[in-house]
Specification:
This protein is α/β, with parallel strands linked by helices. The protein contains twelve helices and eight strands. The chain has a four-stranded parallel β-sheet with strand order 3-4-5-8, sandwiched between helices. Helix 7 links the parallel strand 6 and strand 7. Helix 4 packs parallel to helix 6 and helix 10 packs antiparallel against helix 11. The radius of gyration is 21 Å and the shape is elongated. The two termini are 41 Å apart.
């Protein structure tokens, strides 16, 4: 989809034949090179189909037909995502569905199509988000989208079909978080959870895919991440330079512009940023401030 995380996840040793369906197709030279290397060096047959499976069950059928040309369909993995941040009162119905469709409609369509064409699939997996469980300021629509997709997986599991949702937190080195928040990757955490490397995610998937529970989570604790990256213990996470770095990331400004005497509102703090600052202070630094105190 929009990032390279999905492309890298094709490295899972699940099949030697893959059909990758994407709304926009390959978008970067890295993606094309990654797939080429798997074709040429490892003998994996990979076909890329430019198709929005969230639009209809017929689109899901078309992807399955393409896969059936290569052999029996063994599994389905939904790695699609779309974000439209904003508080509930600021959201429109169109913005909600723009976020819901890649998770909910796509998963629903593939659920219906696989039940009809290949109910015996061994894997029916949705890559969900920890936001469905712990929440995130400004991402109510994304949290709901993942929660509904998880319910589809739970229902399939109750009916004896393959169904699993894997909740992931922020991932470094590749993907949406890496592209949008590179400067945050050295922080202790983001949104209350540690930042996990793509290689760690792939290792965890070997265990999570075989777990009996329909909903599982791959998450790094902030303390573990901080110890692994900096060699410091949790007592040092409140150091001034770390706090300054976190605030500069949230505000989208250079660290040098931050002055202890300058109000955050003067640096462009809006309501969503204020909620993120509050969550960061509480979860990573043990500081409990009201929204008014943060603004003033």
């Amino acid at each position: 989809d929009r990032d390279v995380t999905g492309v890298q996840t094709c490295a899972l040793p699940i099949s030697r034949k893959l059909v990758v369906a994407s709304r926009g197709g390959l978008k970067t030279a890295y993606q094309a090179e990654y797939l080429r290397s798997w074709r040429e060096q490892r003998g994996v047959c990979i076909e890329v189909v430019t198709l929005d499976v969230s639009r209809s069950v017929e689109a899901a059928d078309a992807v399955l037909q393409q896969a059936e040309r290569l052999g029996p369909v063994d599994g389905f993995f939904n790695l699609a995502m779309q974000l439209r941040m904003g508080f509930m009162k600021e959201q429109t119905e169109e913005q909600f569905w723009e976020v819901m469709n890649p998770k909910v409609a796509l998963t629903r369509n593939m659920d219906r199509a696989t039940r009809r064409r290949c109910p015996e699939v061994k894997h029916f997996v949705v890559f969900s988000s920890v936001i469905a469980t712990i929440g995130m300021p400004g991402q109510c629509n994304y949290g709901l989208a993942n929660a509904v997709a998880e319910e589809i997986c739970e229902r399939r599991a109750r009916e004896g079909l393959a169904g699993k949702a894997i909740e992931l937190g922020p991932i470094s080195e590749a993907g949406f978080f890496h592209e949008m928040y590179k400067r945050a990757e050295d922080a202790a955490s983001y949104g209350g959870t540690g930042i996990q490397s793509i290689s760690s995610v792939l290792r965890c998937l070997d265990v999570l895919l075989t777990a009996p529970e329909p909903i599982v989570i791959s998450r790094v604790s902030p303390k573990h991440y901080a110890n692994g990256r900096s060699g410091k213990n949790s007592a040092t996470l409140g150091a001034e330079d770390t706090l300054t770095d976190r605030m500069s990331h949230i505000l989208g400004t250079d660290v040098g512009r931050l002055n202890p005497k300058t109000k955050l509102t003067e640096l462009g703090l809006d309501s969503i940023m204020a909620m993120e600052v509050k969550q960061t202070l509480e979860q990573d630094f043990g500081l409990h401030l009201s929204a008014t105190e943060i603004r003033t």
